[in-house]
Write a structure and sequence with these properties.
131 residues; alpha/beta; four-stranded mixed β-sheet
Length: 131
């Protein structure tokens, strides 16, 4: 089948787009595509947006500022997660220790043994998957 398009990124809504970008930068080692401005930037059309630079220019993660963001509630359907990210790791315990140190929260509901569910600082669920 011939592709219609090439996947470029996944974007997460959040109340602090630069803060959440730094959180995922600490997980992936990818750099932010720009630093936050020193003050308000009413003339900057990208003021509400920041991306991580993926090595080799592949698909990446973007973060969009949404002042009234309501985090998803997982599990459940009142405020569904809508999407989540998975990260492969060789050692769940070692990776968990590092995640908690940078601000992740381990979700109280853990449905499996080969993966673990966490919440990022904006409340988005994501998983570590043992490889």
């Amino acid at each position: 089948m011939t592709a219609i398009a090439t996947f470029a990124l996944v974007a997460l809504d959040c109340p602090d787009h630069f803060g959440l970008a730094r959180f995922y930068s600490a997980i992936t080692g990818w750099e932010l595509d720009r630093e936050p401005p020193d003050g308000p930037s009413p003339d900057d059309p990208d003021a509400d947006w920041v991306q991580l630079r993926a090595p080799g220019g592949g698909a990446t993660i973007a973060f969009q500022h949404v002042p009234d963001h309501r985090p998803p509630q997982w599990p459940g359907t009142e405020h569904p997660q809508q999407a989540h990210l998975d990260f492969d790791v060789p050692d769940l315990d070692a990776a968990e220790e590092r995640l908690l140190a940078i601000g992740a929260r381990k979700h109280e509901f853990q449905p499996g043994t080969t993966f673990r569910v966490y919440l990022d600082p904006a409340g988005h669920p994501f998983c570590l998957v043992q490889t």
